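Section 5.1 Outputs to date
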Amino acid sequence: MRHGKKFNHLSRTADHRHAMLANMAISLIMHKRITTTLAKAKALKQYVEPLITRSKDDSTHSRRVVFSYLQNKEALKELFSIVAEKVGERPGGYTRIIKLGSRLGDGAEMAFIELVDFDENMAKTPKTARKTRRSRKSAPKAEEAVAEEVKAEETPAEESVAEEAKAE
C-alpha cells in the first residue's frame, strides 16, 4: 500500500532521483523545453516550479538555496536573469506539459515540458473584432449607407472652402 507516499519515486534510489531531477531541471532552464516521459515530466514540474518561484527574489540567500538544488552556475545565471525577468508577474504555473503519445520502443507515455512564457507559438495574440455574417441581400444596402456617409463628410468641408473663397 502507498500510505503517505506523496511523490513518484520513479523506480530509483533517492540519490539517483535527486541527481536526475537536478539534471533535467538544468536542461529545462537552459533549453526552455525538453522531451521526456510523462511520469518524469510530472516529477520535474514539482521539482522546478518552487525553484522558479525562488528566483523571483534575487537575493544571496535565494541564489544559494537554488544552487544547492541545481549545482550549475550557468543555469543559475540563466534562471535568475532571463527566466525570472519573464515570469516576474506570473503567480505560478511556470511550466506546461504536453503529451506526445507513446514511445515506439517500450510504449512509455512521452511528453514535453516547457517554460510557459518562452513559447512563441502559444503566446496570446490580441483578439480581433469578430465579423458578423451578413446576407447578400443586405450587402448593396450597406454599401449605399457607407457611400452616403462619405458624401455627408465631404460636403461640409467643400462648403467651408467655398465660403472662404467668397470672403476673399
